[in-house]
Amino acid sequence: MKKVILFALFTLSFSALSAQHKTQNVVIVTIDGLRWQEVFRGADSAIINSNDTHDKNDVRKKFWTEAAADRRKLLMPFFWNTVVEKGQLYGNRDLGSKDEVANPYHFSYPGYNEIFTGFPDKLMNTNDGIYNPNMNVLEFLNKQKGFENKVAAFASWERFSQILSPQRAGILVNAGFMPLEIAGMNDRLKHLNELQLEAPRYISDSTRIDFLTFEFAKNYMMQYKPRALYVSFDEPDDMAHAGNYKFYLDRIKQEDGFIKQLWDYIQSEPAYKNKTTLIITCDHGRGDEPMKKWHDHGSDVLHSEQTWFAVVGPDTPASGEMKQGETTYHKQLAQTIANLLGFDFKASHEVGEAINSVTGKK
After folding, report:
1. What are residue 277's DSSP bridge partners?
2. Sheet holding 88-90, edge to edge
3. Residues of 334-361 as b/e, b for ≥16 C-beta within 10 angstroms?
4. Helix (H) or strand (E) holding 229
């Protein structure tokens, strides 16, 4: 009898907790290789004054002012004026807030595996095209009532066709220069398929420019109204590896503008307004000692585990920049995403605990 009563109480408390959440949809955006230093401090004067910056005067005109609080708004105006003002931002080490990847590799495939599967798998230690055997949170959501066939991912980097294992997961993943093939597509989406065949391939022959990824994601969202949407941008990482600081900054500002358009649409659409949480983060950090190491990341690059993330939505208190506290890890994001939607992410492995300050729970 006691067991029956305890089970009933547990069921009621879980049901009440699920009913309390306001988030019905989630949009996740990652910006590959974006350092926390630029997010929180804006443009770096040491790099501007180095050989990694061409046309220094133009860069200073666009991105430089003395106060870091003003510089970062020049670089990411929507992020600072809207996301941080109305949500939360983690990872400003100048304020004692630490956010990190838990995996020991500090590069892309292991980073994305950690974000979406909720744990740092030591077998996922390559950027090669191996299929990920681990269940990811998007796959999990697609199995939940009301989310079936309402989960989609759009990525510039072709590797997401393996990272998210869409054949097993049963979710839509459009990555690289893959054509989008869905019944009933509108003319805009059909035109984007044609356009990407003619688009410049200055990153690689299989990684498309972020503009096309954004346009596919935005127009898919407008037509099909997914409940979980993932958008992965790539260009800042490519520009950093190339040692091109001007283009690195330009691409960061570009992504900020893309995210603004997504949020503006969310706020204009009744299916999404006041029901949607937006999460923005990166897959790894970059080096900073010596300065030239900003090009790089990896297990042998000092401080490249240092990352950041931001959240804005109806369940997340508007706390702004988070200050001193426990270190957060990207392995916690999968369960946090599930909890925001009222679910407990169950997988074949132990996943990181949700970040309660994001979900508004004590």
Report:
1. 26
2. 172-175, 151-155, 228-233, 25-31, 276-281, 309-312, 88-90, 320-321
3. bbbbbbbbbbebebeeebbebbebbbbe
4. strand 228-233
Residue with tokens 């420019």: 209
Cβ atoms of residues 312 and 278 within 8 Å: yes
Amino acid at 130: I
- The stretch 113-130 carries a mean pLDDT of 97
The helix/strand count (H/E) of the chain reads as 17, 11
The amino acid sitting at 166 is: P
Of 15-29, 127-141, 174-188, 193-207, the one with minimum mean pLDDT is 15-29
Beta-sheet pairing, 99-100 with 151-155? unpaired
Q: Which helix (H) or strand (E) holds 59?
A: helix 56-63
Instruction: Tell me the β-bridge partners of 312.
Output: 278
- Is the pLDDT assigned to residue 293 strictly greater than 60? yes
- Residue 258: both structure tokens together: 């893309």
How far is it, in rounded angstroms, from Cα 192 to Cα 35?
A: 31
The values of phi and psi at residue 218, to 5°, are -60, -50
Backbone φ and ψ of 88, nearest 5°: -135, 150
Structural contact between residues 32 and 237, judged by C-beta atoms closer than 8 angstroms = yes
CA atoms 274, 322, 360, 226: torsion sign: positive
3 has pLDDT over 80: no
